[in-house]
Amino acid sequence: MDILATPAFWVSLSALTFLEIVLGIDNLLFVSIAIGKLKGKQQDQARRVGVWGAMILRIIMLSGIFWIIQLDEHPLFALPEGWAALILGMSADAHAIEEFTYFTIKDLILLAGGLFLLVKGTQEIHASVQGTHHEEAEAKNDFNAVLLQLGVINIVFSLDSVITAVGMTDILAVMIAAVVISTLVMAIAAKPLAEYIEENPTMKMLALAFILLVGVALVADGLGFHIPRGYLYFAIAFSLGVELLNIRARRRDEAAAEKAAH
């Protein structure tokens, strides 16, 4: 209990909780998009599985944190000698070549997760543009498929979240508390966010574009090229601000048109 009285505990908890909430945006957007094709109780059940399943998975990963850390220490295989220099160019530094050449379990998980997001995002954008989303949703039972997708992407995002937590603090209690608090925030925001995205098609397209960006970032991480997440969050925040202004302008024009019609 003495640790609770130390400023370091509360500073670490506050910083890590904020970071976990920010990292949870990726997870929350995907949950909102994935459950969009479900209706009624199935949608609520899938949302709960997506949000609370992420928390349980992250706590389990934190409990086995030493095993998680080892995922990035022992390469499973390496590309043939010379491939990295050929692809990256002769001017690439030794560290970049090494990161690109050797693949660990973590790299493969990030690659698989990134490719999954790229495929899923592309499919959803195509369905939205072609107007086939609802017909396909009605034509087949998607509940189990959505749960499977949520499980796969929770593994990828949880791995990223846990590794970030380890880099912020070495106090397990702080890590678990930050995950629980950030999950509570996600649980509160999940339904309003999903409803808002569903009501505004342009916001859904923006969310799908962000999912594609995250997919590219994960693939890059898996190949040894780290893209600072701040760039992604700034891009989506800027786009979100512009789109909110557009929505406000459209509603004002619609209200003016209705008033003129009467």
TrEMBL record:
<comment type="similarity">
    <text>Belongs to the TerC family.</text>
</comment>
<dbReference type="GO" id="GO:0016020">
    <property type="term" value="C:membrane"/>
</dbReference>
<feature type="transmembrane region" description="Helical">
    <location>
        <begin position="231"/>
        <end position="249"/>
    </location>
</feature>
<dbReference type="InterPro" id="IPR005496">
    <property type="entry name" value="Integral_membrane_TerC"/>
</dbReference>
<feature type="transmembrane region" description="Helical">
    <location>
        <begin position="206"/>
        <end position="225"/>
    </location>
</feature>
<keyword id="KW-1133">Transmembrane helix</keyword>
<feature type="transmembrane region" description="Helical">
    <location>
        <begin position="146"/>
        <end position="165"/>
    </location>
</feature>
<keyword id="KW-0472">Membrane</keyword>
<protein>
    <submittedName>
        <fullName>Integral membrane protein, YkoY family</fullName>
    </submittedName>
</protein>
<keyword id="KW-0812">Transmembrane</keyword>
<dbReference type="Pfam" id="PF03741">
    <property type="entry name" value="TerC"/>
</dbReference>
<feature type="transmembrane region" description="Helical">
    <location>
        <begin position="12"/>
        <end position="37"/>
    </location>
</feature>
<feature type="transmembrane region" description="Helical">
    <location>
        <begin position="100"/>
        <end position="119"/>
    </location>
</feature>
<feature type="transmembrane region" description="Helical">
    <location>
        <begin position="49"/>
        <end position="69"/>
    </location>
</feature>
<feature type="transmembrane region" description="Helical">
    <location>
        <begin position="171"/>
        <end position="194"/>
    </location>
</feature>
